[in-house]
Design a protein that fits this description.
Blueprint: E1 2-5, H1 10-21, E2 27-30, H2 38-43, E3 51-53, E4 59-61, H3 63-73, H4 85-111, H5 119-137, H6 149-164, H7 175-184, H8 188-192
Parallel strand pairs: 1-2
Antiparallel strand pairs: 1-3, 3-4
Helix pairs in contact: 1-3, 1-6, 4-5, 4-6
This protein binds glutathione (GSH).
Length: about 200
C-alpha cells in the first residue's frame, strides 16, 4: 500500500497514525498537494491528501474512509468497537469538525488576511470554540491499553490547533483537554508523527 501525504496535513497524519496503529506496512509518498503534484494527480482526480493506494490498486481518499479501510485490514482490536460505536463516532465527529474548522481557518488566512472577519470565517472560529467547549465536557478515554478512533481523531485535531493556531487551547479555558492531550502525546504513534 502507498500513502500520499505531507508533513503538516492533519488529515494525512491521521491516516498515517492509523496505519501504524494497525501494524500495516505502508510506503509513504511525500508530496505537495498545493503544487498539483503529478504523482498524486495520477492516482486521484481530487488532488488532495491523504490518498491511500491499496495493494489491489484502489485509490482511497478522505481520511475517515481510509481509517475505516485500514481498521478492517490491520491487526489488533478494532478502532471502532461495535459495542461503543455510536459514542465513538459522536466523538469522532466533534474531533473531525475541529480539524476541518482549524484547517480551513489556516487556508483561508493564507489567501485572505481578512478571512476571519468574513461570515464564513466567523462561523469557522465559532465552530472551533464550540467543539473545544464540547470536548472539555466530554473527552474520549485517556491513553490506555486499547486505542479507539475518537482518541486518535481528537488528539490529531487538537495537536493541529496547537501547531497552527497556538493560544486557542489554553489550560485556563480547557484544563481537562490540556491534561488529556498531555497523556495522549505519550502514545508512540502520535509521538512518532508529531507536527514539526
Ligand atoms: N476531507 C478530506 C480533507 C483533505 C484535505 O483537505 N487535504 C488538504 C491537505 S490538509 C489538501 O490536500 N488540500 C489541497 C487542495 O485542496 O488542493 C479528508 O478528510 O481527507
Amino acid at each position: 500500500m502507498r500513502l500520499f501525504l505531507n508533513a503538516t496535513s492533519p488529515f494525512a497524519r491521521l491516516a498515517r497514525v492509523i496505519a501504524l496503529e494497525k501494524g500495516l506496512d505502508v510506503e509513504l509518498v511525500w508530496c505537495d498537494p498545493w503544487a498539483n503534484d503529478a504523482a498524486l494527480l495520477a492516482v486521484h482526480p481530487q488532488g488532495r491528501i491523504p490518498v491511500l493506494v491499496t495493494a489491489d490498486g484502489h485509490a482511497l481518499s478522505e481520511s475517515l474512509l481510509i481509517a475505516q479501510y485500514l481498521d478492517a485490514q490491520g491487526r489488533g482490536a478494532p478502532l471502532l468497537p461495535g459495542t461503543t460505536m455510536a459514542a465513538t463516532l459522536a466523538q469522532v465527529g466533534v474531533g473531525y469538525g475541529l480539524m476541518e474548522a482549524a484547517f480551513n481557518t489556516m487556508i483561508a488566512r493564507k489567501h485572505d488576511a481578512a478571512a476571519d472577519h468574513t461570515i464564513m470565517g466567523q462561523r469557522r472560529l465559532a465552530a472551533m470554540q464550540r467543539d473545544l467547549a464540547q470536548l472539555e465536557k466530554t473527552l474520549p478515554a485517556p491513553l490506555g491499553a486499547s486505542c479507539t478512533l475518537d482518541q486518535l481523531v481528537v488528539a490529531v485535531a487538537a495537536e493541529y490547533v496547537n501547531f497552527r493556531l497556538p493560544g486557542t487551547i489554553t489550560p485556563a479555558q480547557h484544563p481537562l483537554l490540556c491534561q488529556w492531550l498531555q497523556g495522549m502525546a505519550r502514545h508512540p504513534h502520535l509521538a512518532a508523527t508529531a507536527f514539526a
